[in-house]
Amino acid sequence: MDPAKFDVDSRTGFLPSEVPVQRLPGNWSIWEVLLDEAIAKRLALGGKPGGTTVEQAVESERWRASVRETPLLDTSSLEEDLPVSRRAHLVLAFLLSFYVQTLPPTSKVVIPKSVGIPILRLKALGLPPVVTYADCVLYNWHLAGEDANFASENLRCRTLFTSLPDEEVFYLASTKVEFRGAEALESMRAIEERAGEEDLGGIIKHLKRLAVVIDELKEVLMNVREGCDPDVFYNEIRPWSRGQSEERPWVFEAIEDHSDLMTEGVMEELSGTSAAQSSLIQALDVFLGVEGSGFKERMKRYMPRNHRDFLDSMWSIRSYVLENSELVEAYNAVLLALKGFRDSHMIIVTLYIVGPARRAETEKREAKGMAGGGDFVKLLKGARDQTAEMIIPM
Fold first, then answer.
1. DSSP conformational letter for 45
2. pLDDT tens digit string along 351-388?
3. For residue 231, how many C-alpha atoms fall within 13 Å in the half-sphere facing its CB?
4. Which of 158, 226, 251, 314 is the most exposed place for a label (fewest CB within 10 A)?
5. What is the pTM of this model?
């Protein structure tokens, strides 16, 4: 299997092999201008605790009016340039979120055709019309300085909803996990090759290295605590990337004028951004033979199409290990490392979502429609326990 066919790089993993496009060219730059204005104006959340001031409401409506007045642009040539398509989806998804999340909490959600139709027409990536993990993490980085080395410490975020340093730290924690995870993907590829050669010693060597890398991923993830305040994240950052709620379905203006879009339809579920949309973690599950779940399958819809195809084409080592007892110890060590990573993920979810949600509820400040984190913890605990259950008795 050649990962490059699936837009997976040996050096950067699921991140692009080159620095993502930083700004859209040509006529599409009008979307960048709208996004620049939204960020510069520090538009207020429509459903923020305590409500918005009259001035904030007026400023937000002025900006939304400018979005509605923006002409509908052709996106056909975007399909020919994958790096530009990535930036286009990011910008349109951020614009969509700014538009929706600045609306008064009781108003109907109608996505202007200037944003809604282009994001629905972007087919190259296969992403839904909502902010995804790919937008915030995979395609939202650059290197510090023109001559900076391609290294984790030189990664910076390109686009933020709030301009708060906490937001950049939060996104970059996942970007660095993806960057470090490239070695995990290479180890899995090497193990598959060694299996074809019946090289059990080589497999054990790479399994041991894979366990070490997963342990390092855990440390990278936990570093988010050093620069991102949980309450700032929950109350000021997270709401911008919320998805559609049952109470307030999104209506895409003028979709009835585009018969092909009507035929394809719009996903009924449009969830907010989640680390569960990371292809890296699901790749580890597939490789180790950790069974999937309905939640995992739903989250795959929010991954770039090439990455979904990569997961579907992956080889699993578990049956091979069951036939070769010499591999059991090294294989179990990788499972334990993955369980440890999931333990850390549960800690982060508890710290950044469950805890602030409980405090907000206690203080009666939680905005209507904002989901708590209890369900996420249950899902993560299930995945963690499922990973542990895959340990092979020796």
1. P
2. 999 999 888 777 653 344 444 455 666 777 777 788 87
3. 8
4. 226
5. 0.92
